[in-house]
Amino acid sequence: MGRTGCAEGIVARSDVAGIFKVKPTRTLDVAVVGFTEGSDDRAGMVHDLLVAVMRPEATFHILGRVGGGSSDDERRDF
What percent of the chain has pLDDT over 70? Predict the structure, then answer.
């Protein structure tokens, strides 16, 4: 039995576009509170970012690390 209100998206079917899943998008403002540097051919570039949100009492709640989605140029610029 499924849980009410916990849907993860809907499946849309189209004769032209085929079948695809539509999911809601959420955004979240986070603070970068740490990072790791790459090694070997990525030395001098950011490898991972440690991100957190600020709580109402002005403390950070660590969410986790983010390591994907950046090009080598962006990693160098960070």
Answer: 91
| Contact status, residue 45 vs residue 76, Cβ threshold 8 Å | yes
Q: Give CA–CA dist 28/50, Å, rounded.
A: 14
Between the CA of residue 62 and those of 1, 16, 67, 71, what are the distances in Å?
34, 44, 15, 24
pLDDT tens, 51-61?
Answer: 999 999 999 99
3-state helix, strand, coil in the chain (%, to 5): 10, 45, 45
**Cα–Cα distance for residue pair 70/38, rounded to 1 Å:** 13
- Whole-model pTM above 0.85? no
Please report which residue ranges of 1-78 form alpha helices under DSSP H. Answer: 72-77
User: At a CB cut-off of 8 Å and minimum separation 6, what does 32 contact?
Assistant: 49, 50, 51
Give Cα 57 to chain centroid, integer Å.
25
